[in-house]
Design brief:
single chain, alpha+beta, 2 helices, 19% strand
């Protein structure tokens, strides 16, 4: 594992990690995290860790559209 030295002058990007585990039946908690990351100017990117077999159509579509919208603001 490489770690930057204490006197390194490079700026590290601030990443938000959003975990999505299990079946998707309620998207509200993950949607809230996506919206918060989108509106936080300190966050430069989002890492999604997904371990899901899928789920209901409507909440899955809500998440897909929210991620697509996030990508526009934070490519």
């Amino acid at each position: 594992i490489l770690m930057p030295s204490a006197n390194s002058s490079s700026n590290l990007a601030n990443l938000e990690r959003i975990d999505l585990k299990g079946e998707i039946f309620d998207s509200s908690a993950v949607l809230e995290k996506i919206i918060n990351a989108k509106n936080d100017s300190n966050i430069k990117g989002v890492l999604f860790v997904i371990d899901s077999p899928g789920g209901a159509f409507a909440p899955s579509m809500e998440l897909a559209l929210a991620i697509k919208d996030l990508k526009i603001k934070k490519p």
